[in-house]
Structures are given as C-alpha cells and as structure tokens.
Design brief:
The chain is mainly alpha-helical.
Length: 44
Amino acid sequence: MKYVESFLNRRRHVRALRDLYARANNVGSPAMRDELLVIAQRDR
C-alpha cells in the first residue's frame, strides 16, 4: 500500500514538474525561465 501511495505521489509530482517546465518555456525572459528551472530541479 505504501508503494502505491509513493507511486501516486511521484506521478502527481511529475505532472507538476511538466507543468512547470511548460510554463517556463512559455515565459519570454530567459532569466525567469532559468529561475523556474532551478526551482524545478530543487524540488526533484
């Protein structure tokens, strides 16, 4: 059961990361994008 929970949490996290990357790619300024990518890396 614990395994399933961690699996679901990881999938949710991956989806959040993907959203973050997509948002970062939509941002025009490279500085802002780098900041978002740094945040994404730290969360992983």
